[in-house]
Amino acid sequence: MSRIELDQVVVRADTPGGPVPEVTVLQETTLDLTEQRIALIGPNGSGKSTLARLVNGLVEPTAGRVVVDGLDVSRKGREVRRRVGFVFTDPTAQLVMPTVAEDVGLSLRHHVKDRHDRAAAALAVLESYGLSELADRSVHTLSGGQRQLLALAGVLATDPAILVADEPTTLLDLRNAQKIGDLLFGLPQQLVLATHDLDLALRCDRAILIDEGTVVADGAPAGVVAHYRAMVG
Ligand SMILES: Nc1ncnc2c1ncn2[C@@H]1O[C@H](COP(=O)(O)OP(=O)(O)OP(=O)(O)O)[C@@H](O)[C@H]1O
């Protein structure tokens, strides 16, 4: 299993024009994440996405270090990003090619160099996710559920050691949310899942509750979810 370490990490953001020039988005946080499935839960704006984004360098720590499988994210960003797949709430930004098949092909560019082999590999990926019929469609004509599944297929095709998913089921209906949830929980990879879906959090091995940029509970999901429910009242 992989290991994600946060060592005294602080994240501050510049807020030009705001009442204060800088806000602390994440207070000093030290975590050692070795469990297979880790949920990040907490209210809107608490810092879940920030924590998730630190893992692949989308957010840089202002202080402290983030280390993924022994690699310092600030120094070895490229290597870390090859190990860490990331799926967003709204995958539109992740899907940039004219067709579905080309999009998966783009994900595979580092893994399969020959163009023809890559096209064949992309079709095989689509096939394995039941998306073959969409191969020639424009990604803009897909439903939200199809888009999320495609984004996930593209990321998983690169065989990351860790998958970070930032609210991947939020925009989906019940059936698609279940489908994506089942897929995520069937993966062999380490999973870091920022989510408002407490049922998904309860299926994890560890949950971390964040409030106003501070970890306020951390441990077995049942206890952490109960803490969150009590906090909201
Ligand atoms: N670059 C930035 N500049 C200013 N403020 C920021 C920046 N990044 C994050 N923030 C603020 O930090 C806080 C935490 O944001 P974050 O997106 O991590 O929260 P979240 O828990 O994922 O929220 P949600 O559940 O709404 O997605 C928010 O108040 C956000 O506005």
From TrEMBL:
Q: Where are the transmembrane segments?
A: none
Looking up InterPro entries in the UniProt record yields: AAA+_ATPase, ABC_transporter-like_ATP-bd, ABC_transporter-like_CS, ABC_transpr_CbiO/EcfA_su, ECF_ABC_transporter_ATP-bd, P-loop_NTPase
CDD domains documented for this protein: ABC_cobalt_CbiO_domain1
Q: Where is the ABC transporter domain positioned along the sequence?
A: 4-232
**Keywords assigned by UniProt?**
ATP-binding, Nucleotide-binding, Transport
Output one GO MF annotation: ATP binding
Q: Which family does it belong to?
A: Belongs to the ABC transporter superfamily.
| Record's protein name | Energy-coupling factor ABC transporter ATP-binding protein
